[in-house]
Amino acid sequence: MAGLVPAIHAVVIGPSRQEERAPSRTSPLPNPLSVDGRDNPRIKSGDGHDASGAPTPPQEGRTKRPRLRLSPMNGRRLDNFRRNKRGAWSLRIFLVLFACAICANFIANDRPIVAHYKGELLFPVFVDYPEDKFGGFQAHADFRDPFVANEVKAHGWMIWPPIRFANSTTILNPPTPLPTPPTWLLTDKTCRAALEKQGFKDVATVASPCWKLEPLWLGSDQDGHDIVARLLYGFRISVLFGLILAGISSVIGVFAGAVQGYFGGWLDLAMQRVIEIWSSLPHLYILIILSAILAPSFFVLLTILLLFSWVSLVHVVRAEFLRARNFEYVNAARALGVSNTRIIVKHVLPNAMVATLTFLPFIVNSSISTLTSLDFLGLGMPPGSPSLGELLLQGKSNLSAPWIGLSAFAAIALMLSLLIFIGEAVRDAFDPRKTFS
């Protein structure tokens, strides 16, 4: 009987104490905006102050939102690309070279970047000043002319680029007959003779006469143009031509492949026959005929090559759309009444772009190789344009001047190798076996 009293006491009294300790499920939850039934005056108003207007102390550990958000899949692809050291370093080197080529006017130019003349600040690299501004009579001022250079130096100063030659600047007093070898290959006797020809005094007492000459780091071509300047400007034209041609042809090829693969049927069969006939045409002969009719230029050559380059991506994109058009998410989008254009652009195209991005670096490589080949054959850019293929042609014509052909070959080989390594890294980064591993 004595043992039953505590048990009865626990049964009767216990639940009431537990209800006092824990709130009931039906009882209202405590309001976080109140303290002891009153409104909390220390809650922030969203602008760094509380409800009473007093500033709130900054919270520690607050992280900023990242500017660029990548999906988990794209993040893994980026990590895979970075793990490929050869491709990652090739991309860095290519971007540095491309930036130097874009800024070629500030690296190799026959005009000063900035000049100060009689209290006026001039920018000859951007503005073409007449020579009468400096006391001459010509329509355009040649800042390499001793008359203009001495006039500016007497009344101001000039800041020159590292290389004082543009792509079309002709060397007026070359140290040797053209083509001129690099300055560091010349002998002291040849350099002294060149200095005497240029009017220097006491040439025999000069310790290092080759340092007094205007440097030609890679020599000159047969027309008296500096090879370094020609390589810089030629690299810029080749890369820009390849990027523009690859971009426009990719847009056209993706559109044609998407229409074929998504709709299929007679439209697919008709477009396939047209593409097969168009691809079988002799491209080189058509290019020769059109080049004989039209005046050669950058955009004319771009348009002619664009007529045939868009076909390369059609088959890849068509295969991706044929595979994806019967997937469940595409059928669900059709059942919801989504238009075909929206399904193609929003749902199917992002999956098909993986193959397109994989092939894109190789398309750029092919475009640059095509331009170089046409320039080498004399069917490319107009005469006088800075072109790597034209330098190769000069190297073939001047076997006694090996620095011309070797310089052009090294630049082309480096550019194409970097693009191949970047393409291989992109292909491995988008490989599903590595992305989902």
Structural summary, described in words:
Residues 1-47 have low confidence and may be disordered. This protein has helices spanning 4-21, 72-83, 85-102, 104-107, 146-155, 188-197, 227-263, 265-279, 283-293, 298-309, 314-324, 328-335, 340-377, 388-397, 402-429, 432-435; strands spanning 34-35, 38-39, 114-117, 120-122, 156-159. A three-stranded antiparallel sheet has the order 4-3-5. The chain has a two-stranded antiparallel sheet with strand order 1-2. The chain has a domain at 227-435: Orthogonal Bundle (MetI-like fold), CATH 1.10.3720. The two termini are 71 Å apart. The protein is mostly helical. It has 16 helices and five strands.
Which features does this protein show?
two-stranded antiparallel sheet, MetI-like fold, 56% helix, 437 residues, 3-stranded antiparallel β-sheet, mainly alpha
Summarize the topology.
Blueprint: H1 4-21, E1 34-35, E2 38-39, H2 72-83, H3 85-102, H4 104-107, E3 114-117, E4 120-122, H5 146-155, E5 156-159, H6 188-197, H7 227-263, H8 265-279, H9 283-293, H10 298-309, H11 314-324, H12 328-335, H13 340-377, H14 388-397, H15 402-429, H16 432-435
Antiparallel strand pairs: 1-2, 3-4, 3-5
CA-based shape: elongated
The structural class is mainly alpha
Tell me the fraction of residues in β-strands, as a range: under 5%
CATH architecture of the domain at 227-435: Orthogonal Bundle
Distance between the termini: 71 Å
**What Rg do the Cα atoms give?**
36 Å
Side by side, the strands of the main sheet go 4-3-5
The description of the largest β-sheet is: 3 strands, antiparallel
CATH topology of the domain at 227-435: MetI-like fold
Q: Note the total helix count.
A: 16
Number of strands: 5
Helix and strand sequence: HEEHHHEEHEHHHHHHHHHHH
At the fourth level of CATH, the homologous superfamily of the domain at 227-435 is: MetI-like
Assigned CATH class of the domain at 227-435: Mainly Alpha
| Average pLDDT for all residues | 82
- Percent helix, as a range, is 55-70%
Sequence stretches where pLDDT stays below 50 over 5 or more residues:
1-47
